[in-house]
């Protein structure tokens, strides 16, 4: 099966390789086609099966690209792309993941010094070979060297937003199999970490062979990496998935163990040891009545013929089937997976002071959205209707202001914003939900804003975001955001660091200082729920919560479909220990109006 994302990735590679060989215009056509195929709601392989014309019906997909898509779906490869790969045998995705290295640079460096991989790029930069290439200098070479570690890491991790739908689909599929009892995700994906090394899935079953067989038969399974009777790994949609099968009696223990984090587990195990208990993936055991050496990992004393795991099942079993019972027997309240990072959650669970975390159902509306007035794809009416349909009580229209980092014909100048006031008011008058009119204005490098102060004061809500100069040092970046946060009209700082997961580190910010300044100024700091951003990150949210400040969980939706990203923002808020009272959008529209004034 060829998923839309897979086809889109291939077209992006096609575009990169064309660009590397100096082709103009065409690469952008491929990239736009890739975007629209990735967003297309129907499966591309079914569409391709009905012919090229059907594929060409997708917006911005022309006949030439449609025929390549069909070629790929039918044969598994595209001749022209294979030729491009042969003439430029480089690891394109890995090399272009280095900030500042684009396809053209990759082409040049291959011609000049034969670089094909990240390792070769690093070696050449360290040897000073890159600064010798025409068009490059010592500064560029140093930049490349500085950005390689981030790139290397990004190559090994997948964005949550790419991995989570794969996990959801897999769990839904496994649930349909007879042999499968309970099924749940574990690992970092259950903790909703912003990037994922691999997806861990756990199944309770007495027939692990049937489960493993069902797993490898899954439609989305691409290649099997490792097949065992209780643990199998495969790749699906570019994501590595580890499946473990355990007996129902031990499901809770395995779920606890494989959810991690490793640091959380280490602290929990120490707590167990202090109670004379043994904690592992098979259960929680009271070993106080046993000889002390039974707990040792030295296999010499155990029966070599038996299951090695049997030496782990010792003493009196206290819990194993249910995860909640595992925690309860350790004298702890059940700890939500998002908190399991060893940052005080075990003490809080022991003292009964765990936070009551915000939930998706607590959110009453979005404070940062776009329409076709700037770079959104839909009218204000459509966006408001979609918000009402999903049960929201309010909706904020915050199109881009023109300014640093925003393409001129996308952003609104002050006149256009004034014109938009009447348009929003007209939609608001016709809508059952409360519609606020605002703007997403830009924070320049010095902290000044792109929109006139008087106009900002007239708007219902002002989101101010950094869109340019994202390489400032920590002091300058923090000063910049604090300046914007204390502007009398600013209500929300949008995607405060400007990071893009796996592709741009964003501003380095002293979060404690920003959080305290923003809390004093009654300005909310955004958790941008777009899975390419998740900005603020969970740790930064924690700083806001501890400073007594407010976070806003916004989708920054450019279309109704993007409202669905809200869950990623809520989970990120939970990773930062946020309760409903800490969250701007958990307010009712009347409470929000009061906050905005
Ligand atoms: P990832 O996949 O890199 O995003 O992160 P995780 O947390 O999913 O890590 P992974 O997939 O290597 O292992 C899943 C869980 O299994 C991990 O969170 C905790 C548990 N685990 C794995 N190895 C160890 C270990 O050596 N010690 C302990 N205590 N737990 C481990
Ligand atoms: Ca994992
Ligand atoms: Ca794993
Ligand atoms: Zn925005």
List keywords for this structure.
597 residues, DNA polymerase, domain 1, Beta Polymerase, domain 2, Beta Polymerase, domain 3, 4 domains, 7-stranded parallel β-sheet, 17 strands, globular, binds 2'-deoxyguanosine-5'-triphosphate, binds calcium ion, class I DNA-(apurinic or apyrimidinic site) endonuclease activity, methylation, ubl conjugation, DNA binding
State the name of the first-level CATH class of the largest domain.
Answer: Alpha Beta
The number of helical runs is 25
Radius of gyration: 27 Å
Poorly predicted segments: 298-304
Please list the strands of the largest sheet in the order they lie side by side.
11-12-13-14-15-16-17
Taking the alpha carbons of the first and last residues, their distance comes to: 53 Å
| Outline | globular
**CATH architecture call of the largest domain:** Alpha-Beta Barrel
The description of the largest β-sheet is: 7 strands, parallel
CATH superfamily of the largest domain: Metal-dependent hydrolases
Molecules bound to protein:
2'-deoxyguanosine-5'-triphosphate, calcium ion, zinc ion
What's the overall average pLDDT, rounded? 94
Kindly give the count of domains: 4
Measured by DSSP, the beta-strand proportion falls in 5-15%
Question: Which topology of the largest domain does CATH recognise?
Answer: TIM Barrel
DSSP strand tally:
17
Classify the oligomer.
single chain
Helix-strand makeup class: alpha/beta
**Roughly what percent helix?**
40-55%
């Amino acid at each position: 099966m060829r998923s839309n994302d897979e086809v889109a990735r291939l077209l992006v590679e096609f575009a990169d390789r064309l660009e590397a060989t100096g082709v103009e215009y065409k690469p952008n056509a491929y990239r736009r086609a890739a975007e629209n195929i990735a967003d297309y709601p129907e499966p591309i392989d079914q569409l391709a099966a009905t012919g090229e014309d059907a594929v060409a019906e997708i917006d911005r997909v022309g006949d030439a690209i449609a025929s390549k898509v069909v070629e790929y779906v039918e044969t598994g490869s595209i001749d022209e792309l294979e030729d491009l790969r042969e003439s430029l045998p480089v690891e394109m995705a890995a090399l272009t993941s280095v900030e500042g290295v684009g396809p053209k640079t990759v082409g040049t460096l291959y011609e000049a010094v034969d670089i094909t991989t990240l390792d070769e790029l690093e070696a050449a930069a360290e040897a000073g070979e890159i600064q010798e290439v025409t068009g490059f200098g010592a500064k560029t070479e140093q930049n490349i060297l500085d950005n390689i570690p981030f790139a290397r890491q990004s190559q090994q991790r997948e964005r949550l937003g790419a991995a989570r739908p794969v996990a959801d689909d897999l769990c839904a599929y496994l649930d349909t199999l007879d042999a499968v009892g309970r099924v749940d995700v574990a690992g970092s994906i259950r903790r909703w970490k912003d990037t994922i090394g691999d997806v861990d899935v756990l199944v309770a079953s007495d027939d692990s062979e049937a489960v493993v067989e069902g797993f490898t038969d899954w439609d989305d399974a691409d290649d099997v990496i490792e097949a065992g009777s209780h643990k199998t790994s495969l790749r699906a949609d570019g994501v590595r998935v580890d499946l473990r099968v355990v007996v129902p009696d031990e499901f809770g223990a395995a779920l606890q163990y494989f959810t991690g984090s490793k640091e959380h587990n280490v602290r929990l195990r120490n707590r167990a040891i202090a109670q004379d208990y043994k904690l592992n993936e098979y259960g929680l055991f009271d070993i106080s009545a046993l000889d002390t050496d039974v707990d040792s990992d030295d296999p010499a004393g155990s029966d070599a013929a038996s299951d090695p795991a049997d030496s782990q099942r010792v003493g009196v079993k206290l819990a194993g089937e249910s995860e909640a019972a595992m925690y309860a027997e350790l004298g702890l309240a059940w700890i939500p997976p998002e908190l399991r990072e060893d940052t005080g959650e075990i003490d809080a669970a022991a003292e009964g002071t765990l936070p009551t975390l915000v939930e998706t159902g607590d959110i009453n509306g979005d404070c940062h959205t776009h329409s076709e007035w700037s770079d959104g794809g839909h009218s204000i009416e459509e966006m408001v209707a979609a918000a009402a349909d999903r049960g929201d009580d309010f909706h904020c229209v915050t199109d881009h202001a023109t300014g640093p980092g925003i393409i001129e014909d996308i952003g609104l100048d002050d006149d256009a914003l004034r014109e938009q006031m009447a348009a929003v008011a007209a939609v608001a008058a016709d809508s059952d939900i409360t519609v606020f009119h605002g703007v997403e204005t830009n924070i320049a490098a010095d902290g000044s804003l792109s929109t006139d102060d008087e106009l900002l004061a007239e708007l219902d809500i002002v989101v101010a975001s950094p869109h340019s100069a994202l390489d400032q040092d920590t002091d300058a970046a923090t000063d910049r955001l604090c300046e914007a946060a204390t502007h009398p009209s600013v209500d929300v700082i949008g995607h405060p660091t400007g990071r893009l997961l796996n592709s741009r580190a964003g501003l380095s910010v002293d979060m404690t200082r920003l959080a305290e300044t923003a809390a004093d100024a009654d300005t909310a700091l955004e958790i941008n729920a777009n899975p390419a951003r998740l900005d603020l990150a969970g740790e930064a949210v924690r700083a806001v919560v501890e400073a007594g400040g407010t976070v806003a969980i916004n989708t920054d939706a450019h279309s109704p479909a993007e409202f669905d990203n809200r869950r990623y923002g809520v989970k990120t808020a939970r990773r930062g220990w946020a309760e409903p009272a800490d969250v701007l959008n958990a307010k009712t529209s009347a409470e929000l109006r009061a906050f905005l004034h």
